[in-house]
From TrEMBL:
CDD domains attached to this UniProt entry: TM_PBP2
Pfam families (UniProt xref): BPD_transp_1
ABC transmembrane type-1 domain span: 60-274
Keywords: Cell membrane, Membrane, Transmembrane, Transmembrane helix, Transport
Protein name per Swiss-Prot or TrEMBL: Acriflavin resistance protein
Membrane topology: Multi-pass membrane protein
The keyword Transport is annotated on this UniProt entry: yes
InterPro entries to which the protein is assigned, alphabetical: MetI-like, MetI-like_sf
Family: Belongs to the binding-protein-dependent transport system permease family. CysTW subfamily.
Compartment(s) of residence: Cell membrane
Domain of life of the source: Bacteria
Amino acid sequence: MQSRKLPLTWVGMVPFTLFALLFLIAPTMYIVVGAFRTSDGGFTLSNLVNLFQPTILASYWISIRISLATALVGCLIGFALAAAVTLGGLPKWLRGPVMTFSGVASNFAGVPLAFAFLATLGRLGLVTVLLKSWFGFNIYTHGFNLLSFFGLTITYLFFQIPLMVLIITPALDGLKREWKEAASILGATGFQYWRIVALPILWPSLLGTLALLFANSFGAVATAYALTGSSMSIVPIMLYAQIRGDVLQDPHLGYALAFGMIVITGLANLAYVWLRVRSERWMR
């Protein structure tokens, strides 16, 4: 009788599978279960009900606002940049450096990014000092504050825009030249081609990328904490404070807070996957 052997091609999946189980799936399930437990181990829904406290709702709301703002602005600027280097009249040699920078900048976050913006736009930052010395213009006396909603939004855009460029560029490459030529033969202008042909085809990709950028911003914590400390009570910072010092005085309420983040980011990622599958049908 011939023995059945496991194909060696599956061996490469073992480290990744173990890594995902230990550091992603198992902690996620632990949080989900903890959100529905009491301190003595019983089942309860009170932890989820307590999420509707004014302070927690306010933290969710400001996190959603920042995520939406950075996702929308990141999509607009990133799409314009990707279209310029892909379909525009810019020199072709620019595409390589732009894509390389986007790959690096999309992963540049945390303490280094916060320090970079403090050194540039902080009260004693380079740009702040130069504007004050050369033009007598102090951005802080005119309402700007890096440690605010607007300042955090600008900081997040540093990695949101490059991420948009990386994701939308393949979709732009998928626009077939024949479509534009056919529209031109039929008498369509460039604006009409984009409005009637290109944008409807790209629309699922754009919406999917918007959802992904929203999830990416909603879950960011290191940059926000390093930049603002505890001055802005967004959900990741509140959760981080709960893990370090139990500021909510209820560890299972902290699990519920994390569970709410999992639900929101999970829905955003599911929307991205679904819309990405729809967009790929047009690109085949």
